From TrEMBL:
It comes from Oreochromis niloticus. InterPro entries: HATC_C_dom, RNaseH-like_sf, Znf_BED. This is BED-type domain-containing protein. The keyword Cytoplasm does not apply. PANTHER family: TRANSPOSASE, TRANSPOSASE-RELATED. GO terms for molecular function: DNA binding; protein dimerization activity; zinc ion binding. One of its GO terms (cellular component) is nucleus. Residues 16-77 form the BED-type domain. It is found in: Nucleus. Keywords: DNA-binding, Metal-binding, Nucleus, Zinc, Zinc-finger. The keyword Ribosomal protein does not apply. It comes from the Eukaryota.
Length: 620
């Protein structure tokens, strides 16, 4: 209230400050200056803080309001009178102004968060706005060069804080991808971890310019260098990428031992085991494998997208009956998309019929074909065909229209699964329950056998992976509820108990029931110490499976909590790094194509990590 009082007093002449000296002024808050004679205030006693108008020189309106609306309230006079010396009041106003550091931080947040050019600080109109902000004496916004230096220092500070945070994390995961724009390629990497309060966190580590061909050795070297620069050696549970062959080969070649991802290959064929002469391998080692990478998880969203496009397209084109109707219906839809996207009048005619614009499928957006077709079939056929006639394109017949509707019915479960797996809060533990439900729904719909086979083939290395099973089983909302087969449920439970023993601290693992001192004659006998740890592990798992489904339940089970933090640190999708690139497209706009690669990376990382918004920083 004092700040409101100071603002009001700054507008009033020395002899005219009736409201300031009124004994009940503390029941009202200043809102705005309406004119030279009137001000607007809000009553703090009214529900919703009613807006009232009063004169600067009279409080009669406010007295009447109190008497009429709050007659049952026992009013108390303001115990503290405001200073009568207006010079002192103005000094207080200046004392509450922003410091130079606060002003720079606010402007930096505006420029970085809204992805504006740094030259904004040199804009005359922008500086005029900033000058209206109350600041302490002598505070001015720096020019572009000085402000750029300030951003550099803030980036270094952010980077140091991130490294310190990651040093405390026991388990992390990363996502990686390559983005090409304006004939430049950038390697993007994000990191994800779960802290001790079970809050999921994320940050961008790099969006680094890479030159030359994107070969597996270049990719492997860049990823390892980025991991090393943040001290992540030995902490990365897995790196998630798309299904590109160069990424797959980088992780297959650059891993020190056989891991789950090594069994993944483009065709899914089993390979015969090979035996290597260790001495020969060491003597002929080349520079290709001078680094090692963490386990490789393929992006589940990208894999599902491949099923919904490549595999389904191949299946529909393999049968003569479906091939004809599939090709003709998609061709007519493509003609409609092309017409509506290239002609303003055509787009307006479509909007008149459907009340929405059509969506055009793109190769870079998952689910785009499904969403584009879904938008078309919302238009009844008796309205769609007259529209096609107006636009001069071929009409859909009844069979083609029904095919599109059936296509969307069958594809919808895939799109729902894809959206779940690329969600911000999705953990790796959601992957197997999602795939299990997806398979069940496809079986219920009696959909194409090819789609079911494609899921089992492309996710063959995942469906029975121990990492996926443990990630799902340690999620309180899943546990073992998604496992329908009784034998598999028992297997996962035993797996939980085994891992729980490993996760237990060494003091628990070595805890045994000691035999008390006995008479000398008992030394003749040899007794086996009875371990007590196995029972505690079984009890912890059993109690956990019987507990509730809230995430906070894990705090009662320390070993299972540690397992959850480990196996759920990876994301099932590489969507986080894709979102990094989406922001990159806004930062590296055509008007800013002369920006240096390093400055672009710093501005992008500061934006993704919310450098100037601490409340949002690192939250997924």
């Amino acid at each position: 209230r004092l700040s409101h009082h100071l603002i009001i007093s700054s507008f009033l002449p020395k002899a005219q400050h009736t409201f300031n000296t009124w004994k009940y002024r503390h029941y009202f808050e200043f809102d705005s200056l309406k004119s030279d004679k009137n001000i607007s205030v809000r009553c703090t006693l009214c529900i919703g803080r009613k807006l009232l108008s009063t004169s600067k020189n009279s409080t009669s309106n406010l007295r009447k309001h109190l008497a009429r609306c709050h007659k049952n309230v026992k009013l108390t006079e303001n115990p503290q009178d405001p200073p009568t010396d207006m010079t002192a009041v103005k000094l207080d106003v200046r004392a509450t102004g922003l410091s130079g550091a606060e002003l720079k931080k606010l402007v930096a947040a505006y420029i970085v968060e809204d992805m504006l050019p740094i030259s904004t600080v040199d804009s005359e109109s922008f500086r005029c706005i900033v000058e209206k902000i109350p600041t302490k004496s002598g505070v001015k916004l720096p020019q572009r060069k000085s402000f750029a230096g300030y951003l550099e220092r803030e980036y270094d500070k952010m980077n140091s804080n991130l490294k310190a945070t990651l040093e405390e994390a026991e388990f992390v995961s990363t996502t990686a991808d390559i983005w090409t724009v304006n004939n430049k390629s950038f390697m993007g990497v994000t990191v994800h971890w779960i802290n001790s309060t079970l809050q999921r966190n994320k940050a961008a580590l790099a969006c680094k310019r890479i030159r030359g061909s994107h070969t597996y050795d270049v990719i492997g070297a860049e990823i390892e260098e980025i991991h090393s620069s943040y001290g992540l050696q030995g902490k990365v549970i897995a790196t998630v990428t798309d299904n590109a062959s160069n990424f797959a080969k980088a992780f297959r070649v650059c891993q020190p031992c056989h891991l789950e991802s090594e069994s993944e290959n483009e065709e899914g064929d089993d390979e015969e085991p090979t035996f290597t002469d260790v001495i020969e391998a060491l003597s002929t080692a080349s520079g290709d494998a001078q680094f090692s990478l963490p386990p490789h998880y393929r992006c589940a969203s990208h894999t599902i997208n491949l099923i919904s496009t490549s595999d389904v397209d191949k299946d529909l084109n393999s049968c003569g009956d479906s091939k004809a109707v599939y090709r003709s219906s998609i061709a007519k839809c493509s003609a409609l998309w092309t017409k509506a996207s290239r002609s303003t009048s055509a787009s307006e005619q479509v909007e008149e019929v459907s009340l929405r614009k059509l969506m055009v499928p793109t190769s870079t957006r998952w689910n785009s074909l499904y969403e584009a077709i879904s938008r078309i079939i919302t238009i009844p056929l008796n309205e769609l065909n007259p529209l096609c006639v107006k636009l001069g394109i071929k009409c859909l017949n009844e069979r083609e229209y029904q095919f599109l509707k059936e296509y969307c019915t069958v594809m919808k479960p895939l799109t729902v699964a894809l959206d779940i797996l690329q969600g911000d809060e999705c953990t790796y533990g959601a992957l197997l329950p999602t795939l299990t439900s997806l398979i069940k729904i496809i079986l219920f719909l009696d959909a194409s056998y090819c789609m079911l086979q494609a899921i089992k083939t492309r996710f063959d290395a995942v469906l029975d992976s121990q990492e996926g099973l443990l990630a799902a089983a340690t999620c309180p909302k899943f546990k073992l509820r998604w496992v329908r087969d009784e034998h598999r449920r028992e297997y996962v439970k035993e797996l939980l108990i085994t891992e729980c023993r490993k996760a237990a601290p060494a003091t628990e693992n070595t805890n045994v029931s000691q035999i008390p001192d006995s008479p000398a004659e008992m030394d003749f006998f040899e007794f086996q110490n009875q371990p007590s740890e196995s029972f505690s592990a079984e009890k912890e798992v059993t109690d956990f499976l019987r507990s509730g489904y809230e995430l906070e339940i894990l705090n009662q089970f320390p070993n299972l909590k540690k397992m959850y933090m480990k196996y759920n640190s990876p994301t099932p999708s590489s969507a986080p790094v894709e979102r990094l690139f989406s922001l990159g497209g806004l930062v590296l706009s055509p008007k800013r194509n002369r920006m240096s690669d390093r400055r672009f990376e710093k501005l992008l990382l500061m934006r993704y990590n919310h450098c100037f918004s601490p409340k949002e920083n690192n939250k997924t």
